[in-house]
């Protein structure tokens, strides 16, 4: 009976850890930018609009990538991307949360096309 409980616990632990890995892997923007310098991000895409200090982190409100693109349906649209970027005291990006996105020229997310283009 003890072996069954231990085996079940081990299986559940592995299953839950796999779920966490999958959710991170599905976000190409986080894959590209988390762990990199916020200075590099802001230099490439424009400075933040505002910031809020939250203990040992700072959350930047950012909007950029203003452009006019041709959508897959042949129509054109004005687009931009908005995000909250959490940065540690070392000015390294800890998290990026999209707060405004539109369809892109090649898919469902203009922000992904802008911030994590396919290589």
Automatic annotation (TrEMBL):
The keyword Signal applies. Keywords: Signal. Residues 1-25 form the signal peptide. The keyword Signal applies. It comes from the Bacteria. This is Lipoprotein.
């Amino acid at each position: 009976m003890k072996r069954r409980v231990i085996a079940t616990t081990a299986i559940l632990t592995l299953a839950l850890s796999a779920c966490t890995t999958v959710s991170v892997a599905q976000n190409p923007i986080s894959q590209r930018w988390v762990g990199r310098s916020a200075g590099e991000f802001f230099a490439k895409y424009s400075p933040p609009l505002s910031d809020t200090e939250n203990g040992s982190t700072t959350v930047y409100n950012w909007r950029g990538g203003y452009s006019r693109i041709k959508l897959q349906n042949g129509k054109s649209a004005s687009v931009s991307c908005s995000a909250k970027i959490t940065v540690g005291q070392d000015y390294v990006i800890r998290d990026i949360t999209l707060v405004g996105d539109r369809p892109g020229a090649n898919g469902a997310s203009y922000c992904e096309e802008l911030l994590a283009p396919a290589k």
